[in-house]
Structure prediction request, 451 residues.
Amino acid sequence: EAYLGAIDAANEKLNAYVAVTHDQARAMAKASDERLAKNEAGALEGIPLGIKDLFATEGIHTQAASHILDGFKPRYESTVTANLWADGAVMLGKLNMDEFAMGSSNETSYYGPVINPWRAAGSNQDLVPGGSSGGSAAAVAAFLCAGATATDTGGSIRQPAAFTGTVGIKPTYGRCSRWGTVAFASSLDQAGPIARDVRDAAILLKSMASVDAKDTTSVDLPVPDYEAALGRSLKGMKIGIPKEYRMDGMSGEIDALWQKGIDWLRDAGAEIVDISLPHTKYALPAYYIVAPAEASSNLARYDGVRYGLRVPGKDIIDMYEKTRAAGFGREVKRRVMIGTYVLSAGYYDAYYLKAQKVRTLIKRDFEVVFDAGVDAILTPATPSAAFGVADQKMNADPVQMYLNDVFTVTVNMAGLPGIAVPAGLDARGLPLGLQLIGQPFGEETLFTVAH
Ligand code: GLN
Prediction:
């Protein structure tokens, strides 16, 4: 009731929830009380969570913040949310996001932007919470849920976590099942939690992760007790500092934050080593070929026949065209056009195939470093703190917006785990985050170091 009250009081301003499921929340909480009374409590018994609108929730609003999924209520539950409910968690509602998870500011949502609960000192300007999991990050930061599910295709868990002073982890590709998660770029998409601290993130990920026969890319490895990794010593650990992440024009503030992180880890007993990831500069351009290519294919299913919105036309082709014209927003259309172009017969080899080759090189960069004994890599999470809603520079040129992902997309291209942790405030008093990148299935090490 306290959380529902907080949502009802704050959501009009923050726009973090697109649906508040009062009745389900109360019914689930009552069932939790009954299990608690019988000493049958699960690991998350009674914990109230917000769910990104990308996860299918049976019989409940699931629209990926898109007009084209108007009215869609799935007849099945995503594996990740089913895992959470099996452990006793309670659903408060569905969280706002960029449309189909395409964006870095939560401004591409059909439901309008999410407002970051943080403000710069002495300023009334509304700031973005980052994206695409902006609703998840804002809801956690504003205490409108105890934790949230999120997804990360190119940074969408880590960048919003950094913008809101929360913790977000994208696990290794294959750690969480993608079953029932609306697909954006299937070879990059991974679910993970956004939480108030590292311990909460560890507890939530343990529950979300599983092998799943319904997702053949999920991996059959036992899920460790991530919480047990907190408090372990950093002595003997090697932390890599990649020189290619010291980008031209990086702000002094981000540089100082990074140095502070290096000092913390050295003081905690870790060995700091300089490393090189030579193909880093190609990651962002290659991502913006691979991700739209996969998106254009995944989004072909929204045709006005199978789900949501239908705009009538004079024949079926006309109906498809009118439905897709009305149902998709600008950024989604841009991605579908780019994706269709790079996959077309004349350009496939020049763009898509080349981007896949670059992807292999990026993956190898990390393999070389990990083979040399590096346990985790420390980088900034984002090039800046949260920016203003309707920021002119970000909105005038999509590439400016895409640059938000410059430190995070490499991790998705290589399928690695990455965690963003709050590490301080900028000169205006806004949160800044650091990112730790781990070995494949090295989530425990990430939790140890992040904690
Ligand atoms: N901001 C990136 C994009 O727009 C990443 C999105 C994501 O991780 N879902 O594609």
Notes: The chain has a mean pLDDT of 97. The chain is about 35% helix and 15% strand.
